[in-house]
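Problem 12. The chain below contains 128 residues. Write out its predicted structure in token notation.
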Amino acid sequence: QVQVVESGGGLVQAGGSLRLSCAASGRTFSNYHMGWFRQAPGKEREFVAAISWPGGVTYYTDSVKGRFTISRDNAKNMGNLQMNSLKPEDTAVYYCAALPPRPTAGWEFRLPESYDYWGQGTQVTVSS
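Solution.
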């Protein structure tokens, strides 16, 4: 079992930056693939970014490429999502999720149902 907790959300003006963190306890989080998803009011949960284990291959949705960077610190059992040049359309609850370290195709990282463990989410609000 892996417990996941996100932190770092908040209110920021358009063009600003936030850094989300994902802490895990239980089994060794560093042995899991990690993903970030977001859900805006009235919309479905959508993929944002993912990073594989152990190679650290990264995946991004097109709308955040060049602005967001996903990373992981295996020694600290944590992951991060650095978000720069934020836009009002980035406003959502952001969720961190863990996927067991099995062979995973790139498209599988983008599906919420691929992930076994989820945090409670952290609110990100970008004002215009």
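Discussion. The chain has a mean pLDDT of 92. Students who got a different answer should revisit the alignment rule from Section 12.3.
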